[in-house]
Amino acid sequence: MDLSKIKMVVTDMDGTLLNSDHTVSNQFFTLFEKLKSKGIVFVAASGRQYNSIVEKLHPIKDDIIVIAENGGFAKKQETELITTPLVKEHISKILKTLDQIPNIHAVLCGKYTAFTAGNSAKFTQKLKEYYTEFQILDNLKDVDLEIIKIAIYHFESSEAHIYPFVKHFEKDLKVKVSGENWLDISSNNAHKGYALKKLMQNYNIKSDELIVFGDYNNDLEMLALSDYGFAMANAHPNVKKMANYTTLSNDENGVEHILELLVK
């Protein structure tokens, strides 16, 4: 494995760079400074809200590119690079379908804030980990702002209890099981792979100059773009099948393990 050509590092957040306590290691920030000194571009790519990603990576926020909302929104410093919203007709159809699914919690995700219904204090508490800015509404149909993504949460399993009810949207939209409990619906071009491909074009990055780390199905498209795609040890089977390499788990600093090899 020859990492001498690497010019860009891209990593997912939850289950990848973040440990099970949803924190970033001090080791990573030390390694980031070495990446920066080598001129290697760092990209954080997550299903999380932009503000939430920036909060996790606050010490380096001015030196990185952020791909948020599964690729629906990307930004570097104050420059918005990509915005791919859902059309209102699709939002309306999705919300009607979600009304028929029991025990789920929906979030309408804008660029800088999100909206959810206030019918579960338990879910609202959970939401605070992933969304630093959100509003609780009586009716999500009242939202009239640009929406990038609709995220849906189930406390047991998104793959078992949400996906079967919404998979018919796949003919028109991107439907992604993005975590054990989360499923995301967005525009067909609002995914991490689309956003990363745009960045690769802008920075003239080739597949053998790129490292990508991921753990879940919403990482598949961006892993496919890299000769050095790494699945975490804790990754979904689909991710391990797609990635060319594996690394340690997120709780064993799997990303940092590979970055140590890179900076050497």
From TrEMBL:
Superkingdom as given in the UniProt entry: Bacteria
InterPro entries referenced in this protein's UniProt entry, alphabetically: Cof, HAD-like_sf, HAD-SF_hydro_IIB, HAD_sf
Gene3D superfamilies reported for this sequence: 3.30.1240.10, HAD superfamily/HAD-like
Pfam families: Hydrolase_3 (PF08282)
Protein name: Cof-type HAD-IIB family hydrolase
Species this protein is from: Maribacter sedimenticola
